[in-house]
């Protein structure tokens, strides 16, 4: 940020996922006045107490500091928006720092996901079945804005920032979807269904009720054409989340579902190429990373590949790999395979869904033929994409 500030850079927006600072070894062992760390043979505690790559802020409180967000603030144009992810336990501290740095807090957008694992201490004996934590399924995301100069129209004219491109973010409505805006757009306001505390004087004016109904109908017609107004909520497309929406009649996630299926069909082609060249059949897969671990995505891949998918306990699999290589390099294990055997644990195995696998076995050959017939167009599409990219103005 200092380098960007020195260069006079001003950006249109910032999206960031800063440290959540949930529980830090730095706070316990890395303070300047802390006792010397008993680091053992590997020195892991000494390194961890210094933070990521020796930077103490990684385990400290950088996301809670006002000065951090003031530096972000200084790099942004007036009216520029900030999006920052956090954790349900520490969101309030980050947002207070952002607000104190001069930003306007515009909204909070929960990100829902179905892949969380409860970090609970489960009790035994008399208290068996009791624990200490719920399963995480939400990350709060703050939407903040640097204050405007003048009106919103004036700020947009000067800097191109301050407003949100609503139409570009609308959610499409399926042609066969039951979407009519509800009872008020169909029939207008029925005063007899409203409690006294909710009634307004205009509700007793027949012409005002008709005008209200017509405005709602116009909004529904526009949404039919352009899509739903974007909501202050996002989700990962996992089956658990989609099922929750489906219970209330929302199933736009089907499009996301089919997109994932198409990616899985393409992956299956590459797997068959590797099997043919190696003479060996794929026996199992291991899901690593964030999006790769969503239940819907895992079930689709297992069914398309007709192969079980294992889900590791540790979501940050790269760290486990680093630990296995370090343990082998320092002599704790003679082979990385032995280190992996010792360190890697699995939470569950996602088996192919027989009904899905049967359908996919018929769809895959059709996908392969489409791929073959479309292959000749790919070079032209790549050239066209390069032409468009080269002619676009540089982003600020």
> Helical content, roughly?
40-55%
Whole-number tally of structural domains: 3
- The gyration radius over C-alpha positions equals 27 Å
Total strands: the figure is 8
CATH topology of the largest domain: Nucleotidyltransferase, domain 5
The top-level CATH class of the largest domain is Alpha Beta
Class inferred from helices and paired strands: alpha/beta
CATH architecture of the largest domain: 2-Layer Sandwich
Tally of helical runs: 14
Major sheet: arrangement of strands:
1-2-4-3-5
Within CATH, the superfamily of the largest domain carries the name: ATPase, nucleotide binding domain
Mean pLDDT equals 81
Shape: globular
Low-pLDDT stretches are 37-55
Can you walk me through this structure?
The chain has three domains: about 1-20 and about 60-165, Vaccinia Virus protein VP39 (Rossmann fold), CATH 3.40.50; about 165-230, no CATH class; about 255-390, Nucleotidyltransferase, domain 5 (2-Layer Sandwich). It contains 14 helices and eight strands. The chain has helices spanning about 1-5, 25-30, 45-50, 65-75, 90-100, 150-160, 185, 205-225, 240-245, 255-280, 295-305, 315-330, 335-345, 355-390, and strands at about 10-15, 75-85, 105-110, 140-145, 235, 285, 310, 345-350. Helix 11 links the parallel strand 6 and strand 7.
Features:
396 residues; alpha/beta; Rossmann fold; Nucleotidyltransferase, domain 5; 3-stranded mixed sheet; 12% strand
